[in-house]
Amino acid sequence: MMLLLRISGFISAFMAIIVLAPSLQSFPPAEAIRSSHFDPYLRFPGRISSPDRFSFRQASPFRNAAECATVAENSTICDPSLVHIAITLDEEYLRGSIAAVHSVLQHALCPQSIFFHFLVSDPGLQTLVLSAFPDLRFKIYYFDPDRVRRLISTSVRSALEQPLNYARNYLADILEPCVRRVIYLDSDLVLVDDIAKLWRTRLGSRTIGAPEYCHANFTKYFTSRFWSNPRLAGTFADRRPCYFNTGVMVMDLHQWRKAAFTRRIEKWMEIQKGGGLSGRIYELGSLPPFLLVFAGHVAPIEHRWNQHGLGGDNVKGSCRDLHPGPVSLLHWSGSGKPWARLDSNRPCPLDAIWAHYDLYGPTSTATATAAAAAAADSSSSSRPAWFLSNIWLSVQAHLM
Ligand SMILES: *[C@@H]1O[C@H](CO)[C@@H](O)[C@H](O)[C@H]1NC(C)=O
Ligand SMILES: *[C@@H]1O[C@H](CO)[C@@H](O)[C@H](O)[C@H]1NC(C)=O
To answer: Is the C-beta atom of 217 inside 6 A of ligand 2?
Structure first.
């Protein structure tokens, strides 16, 4: 038995090398020099992080189910059967990103058909990804913070000013041209459903798809200076804009490139920046430019794919509940992050679900148990206990 385990360990390590060989080879600086396409983004600085500051447990191995299309070990990033996901990795949200990837793999029927595009400002993080997911298909892209720094204005929460928050604006330029569609995911969420269902969403003639919230007060995302200037506010004249959250988006990169949406987003950021403190047209970070360009032109996706706001409001980070309806993805947008609340022993009830995917440190199982206990005790949620335990059970069933 031991021998068998050993041998299978060897085989999977060997396969990991084969699968990862292309991404290792394309890692700096070879491709950065060879391909002018990536130059602005793949200019690596000398800085390499010391990954030993973080330690992640290795996720359990994942395999495609029998009904999945086989993805050849030698297939490239351009293989049309792959599902593409883009997510940022930075030190502050690293634990969240790793948990998000873990949850995607756990709930996918065909996890080996998923390709991850990681956007980093610190190339040393590659080692960490490998330590948690030795068999993962992925590529790491360096996102140069200077690319957006000149465009970022201060916002209500300093975390919103991080340059990597703006990397989603540049996916169409950064990813290979053969990647025509990508799902962008924030780092503070977990999937509890198969992401392939979201991948197959029809966008029609739209460039991005996201759940829309037409009852939200759209006015409050922009300042009175914006609304009182007809040249600015007129941008919404011939559409019915609704709020949507940019943390989960299905993006048609082919259309995005054709219409040069990156440039349109940058233009709004320049207007915001040029206005100075008294002339700002919005208060939040990367969201408003997206609303300016896309609100009213979004392919609506079922709300189950972004149950957002679980981090609470932007000031206090208080506990929030799920919106009514089915749940495929839980998103801790807002200032409270589940890992921080779990560490400080003050978790919100739903944080127990996040803890299930946490791979950080050796004690994470204990954290999950403690979180579940705390959640069972908590009376702060208006949601009946059976509801939470139903989600919990479905999560556990998926994990079996
Ligand atoms: C991948 O390997 C298979 C068989 O091992 C071969 O037929 C195919 O041409 C290879 N594809 C590429 C892209 O190298
Ligand atoms: C929407 O928000 C604006 C600005 O915060 C406010 O003035 C307005 O009264 C709000 N509208 C509704 C219907 O709540």
So the answer is: yes
Rounded Cα gap, residues 293 and 260, in angstroms: 11
pTM of the model: 0.79
Nearest CA to ligand 1 atom 8: 74
Domain boundary among 305, 320, 353: 305
| 255 and 377 housed in the same domain | no
For the chain, 400 residues long, give each residue's pLDDT as a single digit of tens: 444 434 343 333 333 333 333 333 233 222 222 222 333 333 334 344 444 556 899 999 999 999 998 888 788 899 999 999 999 998 889 999 999 999 999 999 999 999 999 999 887 788 889 999 999 999 999 998 888 887 876 655 565 568 899 999 999 999 999 999 999 999 999 999 999 999 999 999 999 999 999 999 999 999 999 999 999 999 999 999 999 999 999 999 999 999 999 999 999 998 888 876 557 888 888 899 999 999 999 999 999 999 999 998 766 668 988 988 999 999 999 889 999 999 999 999 999 999 999 999 864 454 555 555 554 444 333 333 434 444 544 444 433 3
Atom of ligand 1 nearest to the CA of 74: 1
Does ligand 2 have an atom closer than 6 angstroms to the CB of 8? no
Ligand 1 interacting residues, C-beta cut-off 6 A: 72, 74
Crossing angle of helices 94-107 and 385-399, in 10° steps, is 70
Q: Who contacts 257 (Cβ-Cβ below 8 Å, separation ≥6)?
A: 172, 173, 177
Question: Is the Cβ atom of 224 under 6 angstroms away from ligand 2?
Answer: no
Please state, in angstroms and rounded to a whole number, the distance separating the CA atoms of residues 140 and 369.
Answer: 33
Please name which ligand lies nearest the alpha carbon of 221.
Answer: 2
**Cβ neighbours of residue 284 closer than 8 Å, sequence gap 6 or more:** 155, 156, 160, 221
Q: Do the domain assignments include residue 279?
A: yes
Domain shared by 271 and 332, yes or no: no
Do 98 and 182 lie in a common domain?
A: yes
Nearest atom in ligand 1 to 76's CA: 13
